[in-house]
Amino acid sequence: MQSEQPGRQAEQPEHAYPDHWEADVVLRDGGTARIRPITADDAERLVSFYEQVSDESKYYRFFAPYPRLSAKDVHRFTHHDFVDRVGLAATVGGEFIATVRYDRIDDRGMPASAPADEAEVAFLVQDAHQGRGVASALLEHIGAVARERDIRRFAAEVLPANTKMIKVFTDAGYTQKRSFEDGSVRLHLDLEPTDRSLAVQRAREQRAEARSVQRLLTPGSVAVVGAGRTPGGVGRTVLRNLLDGGFGGRTYAVNRALPEETGTLEGVPAFRSVADIGEPVDLAIVAVPAERVPEAVADCGEHGVRGLVVLSAGYAETGTAEGRDRQRELVRQARSYGMRIIGPNAFGIINTSAGVRLNASLAPQLPAAGRIGLFTQSGAIGIALLAGLHRHGAGISSFISAGNRADVSGNDFLQHWYDDPETDVVLLYLESIGNPRKFTRLARRTAAVKPVVVVKGARHSGSAPPGHRVPVTRIPHATVSALLRQAGVIRVDTVTELVDAGLLLAGQPLPAGPRVAILGNSESLGLLTYDACLTEGLRPHRPLDLTTGASPADFRAALTAALADDACDAVVVTAIPWVGENGAVESGDGEVLAAYLREAVASAPSPAKPVVVVHVEMGGLAEALSAATSTRPPARRPLGAAQPAGPKSPDAPVGGPPGGAASASPAGARAAGVETGAIPGHGPAGGSSAPVRPGAAGAVPADATPAPVGSAGGPPSGGIPAYPAAERAVRALAEAVRYGQWRRQAAEPGRVPEFEDIDEGGAAAQIERVLGEDVDARGATLDVDAARELLGRYGIDVRPTLPAPTPDDAVLAAARLGYPVALKTTAPHLRHRPDLGGVRLDLAGEEQLRTAYAELTEALGKPAELQPVVQAMVPRGVDTVVRSAIDPAVGAVLSFGLAGAASELLGDMSHRLVPATDRDAADLVRSIRTAPLLFGWRGSAPVDTPALEELLLRVSRLVDDHPEVVAITLEPVVVAPHGLSVLGATVRLAPPPPRTDLGPRSLPSY
């Protein structure tokens, strides 16, 4: 693929084997390969690999017929110094499938050493593996290796007919030059990452990881390894569930203990091993004891199985070193064969697509088909969620309970669901986030096209569950939640809220704003709903009380009017039972009310508005909803397109599909607190200027909810969610409002402003000087003057402070700064604690200063302990604090709050990821609970928030430009009606943690 004369370079000293270059990667077709440096031990592998390459590929590589490698060639291609000469191989099953190498050259193209910064690069991919994206992955990794070795450019020579290789280079996104010389194409690639190369890399990552999940969810054949000879047991149960769910592919039972004469189990072919099947197997469900799993994995890997679901327990979830080692070895073994794993300790996977109907789980029945993708890390929570969604009539597109998620994780499924046409809403129950930086990036992209709702378990335990391998993070849970919200994730606290939000988003359009109409036949329930709206930050209209005598027709008329009112964006209907003259609750009213509400929704004008129902024990309502909910998903529509609405046909299916109940007992779901319902058949009635969710499943009755309505037309395509408490309905609606607002803003993102007065080069030189000194490995905190200098290079002016070890020094400092002044202690135990009396303000002259100095030292201690300083007074305003810190797990975080108790005691801080945009800065200032103090609360003068936002952007820019700035604290920042003053600053420098999101694609290592 590139011309090269073997054996042309003299041997160089070898360096230590760089094991950090080893990586597992997902290829374009969803399989995996291992990339590692080539060593002298690989001679036989290289020869075997080369023998399997076609003559044409060899010709493209060497520009001449080259049928075999000589001993000298083999030695050259397997001996590297890992600096000037590097070779990498992609392997599957321990054998080479592709190689890449670079040789450092000088400007004449001759072999060279540093400081030469160019290298010649060449690839060779086995013909059977061409088209899988192997060369693209190798280019990313060899490029990262070259940058580490101070190589800045690659040169490659390619025959014009080798179009595949030319495309690998041209599609990589690097800055490049191309020329035609002596009958070959000469390419030069600048290896500095660009926005385009990063975008190409992430697009390839998304396609590969999505494809790897799709292979797991859509197998053509499944083998259950460990299916018992007698009913019962995990393996036999999964086999039975596969068959009962109507799986459309081939199914096999595998058990090494089966007698030779055994022909079938549960009516499917049974074998003693995967090898005995004799036909391709796409997915294996492994349900054998942990000590026998390696044997099963080897059997699967050696016979072409593409993916594993490991239900077996006894791994890292045990909390033992043995369990962790066993899990680590499981992942290594599976990846060596190019297989991906769900689990171990998994509950299983489900795909309800009509052409697949895969129930490879312990759920006894295949759930109804719908538009919700569900991922959990807990089998127990998964059971509860499946049962809860089923009880409320909501269908799912796919379900995954990943157990220890040693390999496939929520990130992989976000990649899949991002462009999955059968999923409109993503629900995730997470107990840990293995790669928060990547999760945030993927969630932001997915949330831009469909809602992502997350509930996080183990929030306050301080550690992840034993089976989960996660990076260490120093930031609190509240900060993680704020960053997820910044990414558009709908963060909820309980599984009940997860279901509540999911049902609304799966069956309703997004609201165009926060204005809510409330109507119903109970004044008290209306007022509770009104209060709940105010609590959630919505703008409710005064409730419309239809009185207890209101008929279903009155509800219909009021709802029709509300939906036609341009002054409201959503409607909450509240309903209590009708009571007859004798005090008895009239029966059957729930069904009637549901019919009238459906009719009002069906006739509503465009744009569509979300409708939710709050009810109290409406007789027959929940039963009617459960009986008439359609489980057929609607045809998918483009975002914002009209959705047909209409009453239900008498011939439409009643209940669920033939296969269709959810997996777990309703009692289990109630125990988890999942309880809600829906009126099916409601969806957007027409086009909308606001973002409108694509078609959702027919959804969702519950224990106490209005019933489906209508008697003619097609199946319902959405549901009016109904809730037994106003707070639950309003909370779900509020999340939809906030998400809709985020979607609209995300369509026009903010910008990172440029500042002409920034001295980036000077700051870099100063940082290099500090870190170049003999400092602690953890970094160094700059002294006051150095911190002022560095911040000043980014236009951040820190007011000077002068030390005052004696009263006379204080007087001299004040004379230098000019009266009035402040006298402050800077001792660590008194710093930023004005409540302890360590600050004296507005000292107008020498006499006041000396008196304050004497009072301070008499009350708090000797000057040597207090470390007093003098600072000029600044205009009065609101004291705030600005911080930035780099966390290894999530990256640089910018934080803002009011100084003192508000931020320290109440945790009232807002957070955004760096780099912050102008919109992020504005949101930081406005999203703290004490923000009214900045905007003229109780008649006070509003402060200069534009100046504050500019300060936030300058701090963000400094940290983004120089990741060595690992922590900044500006406190206090006094924001006045005109301008602001930074009175104190702390800056810490250290070597930055590695950026895992900027390197080449790779799976988490074990």
What does the model show?
This protein is α/β, with parallel strands linked by helices and 1006 residues long. Helix content is 32%, strand content 21%. The protein has 28 helices and 40 strands. The strands form six sheets. Strands 1-2-3-4-5-6-8-7 form an eight-stranded mixed β-sheet, with helices on both faces. Strands 11-12-10-9-13-14-15 form a seven-stranded mixed β-sheet, with helices on both faces. Strands 17-16-19-18-20-21-22 form a seven-stranded mixed β-sheet, with helices on both faces.
Spatial extent as radius of gyration: 33 Å
Structure classification: alpha/beta
Mind summarizing the main beta sheet?
Answer: 8 strands, mixed
Envelope shape: flat
Helix fraction, binned, reads 25-40%
Q: What percent of residues are in strands?
A: 15-25%
Walk across the major sheet and give the strand order.
1-2-3-4-5-6-8-7
User: What does the average pLDDT come to?
Assistant: 84
Number of DSSP E strands: 40
